[in-house]
Each structure stands twice: as structure tokens, then as C-alpha cells.
Amino acid sequence: MAFKRFRSAAAALLTCSAAVVAAAPVQWTSASGGNDHWYERVTPATVAGYTWDEAYADAPTRSWMGLTGYMATVTSQAEQNFLIAAFGIGGAWLGGNDRATEGTWQWVNGPEAGQTFYIAGAGSQPGYSNWNTGEPNNCCSGEDDLVYGYFGDAAAVWNDYGVPSFPNARYSYFVEYSGQPGTSVPEPATLALVGVGLLLAARRRRA
To answer: What is the pLDDT of residues 168-207, one digit of tens each?
Structure first.
């Protein structure tokens, strides 16, 4: 328990040292072996960061290229490697938890919503995971949320954290845009192009 608290403090320092200015989402292109989804590390507006629940609520309020966001779901080592290369190893929430059934980890949003990716104690696993050795361990009266990069190592290994024991744990989070979930919302640039087109059409009619 003391070790987890120490790691929490260290992770908070990493969050505080992260750049506050948000960069544009990065695409994992099919040409590089990816899925053509876009990804973004949402860095908190303040050093306090987001709880897992706040990140879950915030993700669908974001859009990119007409796509609605959701907390990222990492389903392969290649996708994990992409996040490391694009955004580094600092702690960030992912869109998974075992709140429904202790020890059964599921993706809770996006195209994989409801899919189980890890079952504690199972001989074989239904999906990809990148847990640190000894994790998930449901430490300290319970940990139900998924965090990437908690231990600060080069592989950005995962840890169970958050509720119920650490409901105020705060990090940045990864948002993913794929075109599957939610309702597409036109980006401001798209709306501007539509406006220009309507203006030109009106001028032609008057000519």
C-alpha cells in the first residue's frame, strides 16, 4: 500500500511536468501497419488532471475530423508501441475497467465496448494486455480502473488504480477517434468550406 502511494506521488509529478499545450491528434496510419484511427493525449488544463470518471465523461465531448472521441482502447502490442512513440510513457487513463465484475477487465467505450480483454487467474486471455508484473492486484481495498504508464518504465506497462481506493487519482488520458462510436460533428474548418461554397453559389446565381 505504501509503495502504491509512493508511485502515485511520483506519477503526479510526471503529470505536473507534462506539457500543458495540447498537440493535434496523431493518426496511426494503415500504411504504417495501423488502423487509421487518430489519437490524442488530453493533458489537463490544470496540474490536477482528470479522474477516470472525468476522463470518461470528457472524451465524447471532443471531436476531430468529424469523428467523436472516446477513451482509447489498446488492443495490440503494435498499438501500445504507437502510443509510446507518439506520446511517451507518462501516466494516462485508458478506457478499461473491471467495475462490473472484479477481475474481469473490459473495454467500456468505443468499437470494443463490452469486450473482455483480461480475466484474472485465467490460463489464456481473450485479448491483449500490458500489465506490469504482479498487476492487476486489486490493492488497498480495491482498484478498478486502467492506467497506462503508471510505473514510468520504457514499456509504459499498465496498472489497476482509481476507484474505490483512490477515487481522486488524476492523470491525463488518451482519446481515440475512429468513426465507429457517437455522432459525427462537422469540424469548424469543414463548416467554413461549406460557407464559402454557398457564398460562391449565391454569387453565380446573381451573375
So the answer is: 999 999 999 997 544 344 444 333 433 434 444 444 444 4
CATH superfamily of 2-206: Mannose-Binding Protein A, subunit A (3.10.100.10)
Which of 140-145's residues contact partners 24+ apart within 8 Å by CB, and which partners?
Answer: 140/1, 140/4, 140/165, 140/166, 141/165, 142/102, 144/97, 144/98, 144/99, 144/102, 145/52, 145/93, 145/96, 145/97, 145/99, 145/169
Question: Rounded distance, CA 115 to CA 113, Å?
Answer: 6
Model pTM score: 0.78
Number of Cβ within a 10 Å radius of residue 156: 23
Domain range list for the chain: 2-206
Determine the Cα–Cα distance for residues 130 and 27; give it in Å rounded to an integer: 22
Residue-wise burial string across 31-66, b where 16 or more C-beta atoms lie within 10 A, e elsewhere = eeeebebbbbbbbbeeeebbbbeebbebbbebbbee
CA distance readout (Å), 176 to 4, 56, 68, 102:
28, 12, 8, 26
Q: How far apart are CA 206 and CA 24, in angstroms?
A: 40
